[in-house]
Amino acid sequence: MPKIPTIIPITDLRQDATSIVKRVAKSRGPIIITQRGRAAAVMVSIADYEHSQHELELLRLLARGEKEIEAGKGHDLNDVLLEADILLKELQR
In this structure, are residues 21 and 8 in contact, taking their beta carbons and an 8 Å threshold? Predict the structure, then answer.
């Protein structure tokens, strides 16, 4: 069952930013910031942000690879696996 997201009005963020930043870093979950009752932004820890950026880069590489395969281009399997290993090691940091 998905976890219910934490929702905080922007006024609370203004009044207690330090505590909220500590909370997002500790919980490792996103905090939705609302403005006038509507979602306006999402706050995530730097670790989660970096992880999602690495995952996005992997997806971009896979999509590029699929396009290259469709176009009849290819790469040596060992080179591809080496590049994947490097990216995965970066994710584990």
Answer: no
